Amino acid sequence: MPHVMEKPIGVIEEIDGRPQKTATSGKKALLEPPAGAGWEPLAKKMGFQVGKSPAMRRLVETAYKIAKKNINVLIQGETGTGKEILARFIHAASHRSRQVFVPLNCGALPKGVMETELFGHERGAFTGAVKMRRGLFEMAHRGTIFLDEIGEASPAIQVKLLRVLETGEFLRVGGEKPVKIDVRVIAATNVDLRLALRNGTFREDLFYRLEGVRLEIPPLRERVEDIPVLAEFFARKINPALLISPEAMRLLCNYSWPGNIRELSNIIQNAVALCEGNIILPEHLGARIVSGDPAGRKTWGRSCSGKTAEDTGCTGGTGDGCPGTAPPGKVFHAFLDFPNQIALEGMSCEKLADLLIHVRRQEKKILHVMRARGSDLAPLLSLEEAEIHAITEALDYHQGVIIKAARSLGIGRNTLARKIKKYNIKVEGLD
Q1: pTM to 2 decimals?
Q2: What is the pLDDT of residues 354-385, one digit of tens each?
Q3: Which of 47, 59, 124, 129 minimizes the number of CB atoms within 10 Å of its CB?
Q4: Distance CA 394, CA 409 (A)
């Protein structure tokens, strides 16, 4: 028998009065401020420069909406994009805003110190523990803890973090009595955690616990319209009378900003220090901004405006902020030569992972353009070729260890062994 729900009298009265309320709300809507005004006063109060780009404004609007919900947040973005200020904004917009906000960079502490920092310790837990010490989770009770660079957390710490998120309690180092807490966790990373999952360096269960809502901050090079706003903000924060010349602003907008907002802030600080008048000029910005190259080398296609094709070698294409692009041969050889083997060996694993992701993105763009032109030089791989490529890449990455390669591919060890035999793939260390 179907269940019949009767409407309460109050609801009926509300429905009866709906036409008048609708008319009133329609008039009110015309007088209401545009979308985004709800979060803008708070952002302004915090000094959070959101900018004008639609992508960034949509991101902050989403962050503002989910701030009042008691769910964990994972913020992804390149180094220097402002992950911590976004985390502070979420905390300030939440019901926990009157409580403490505790930040921790997981990559800045030695592994042996991390557990004590997060969970504290009991008196006598180890040599030098002369008294009980509260950890950051305990300090953040009823508030928010911000775990920056969460991808750097060791496997042992990941297990303990998972327990806190699942049960809301933990043990101090050397302790026997569980400590109960009520903490909102906002985590951040500049690496692709999904790639870390496939590589087995990050726990899948922890990832899904952290990723209540995922927010991805776009890099500064993808929000060029925000560069003038940010540059002027940083300049006037130091000297309210300072202006930035149009030519200097053009150079700032044409630069790729690998260090994102943090790099822009640093460049403006240096420019203010070098500027003797009230206008920041190109010569105050430094060699790498003028050249348009992060390494400070002169590059094609960045600052050839106003010169002829004979002067610059431009072919008349449309580069970033440039009326023409460099000769294809020069761009091609520059791409192949950088970074060289020595530079690669000097990079951290984190930087190498970022570089690899960037190279793969460029490969997709190149193939997309070639296929759009109907080029026969960029054919699609067959299913068999794609499988061989994936298996070869996984074996190469894991140095021929089949069980690790199988895990990263999401298949069983025996299945991978059969495919290796089927495709006659040579594995180092196996006959």
Answers
A1: 0.61
A2: 677 667 667 767 776 776 676 666 666 778 88
A3: 47
A4: 7
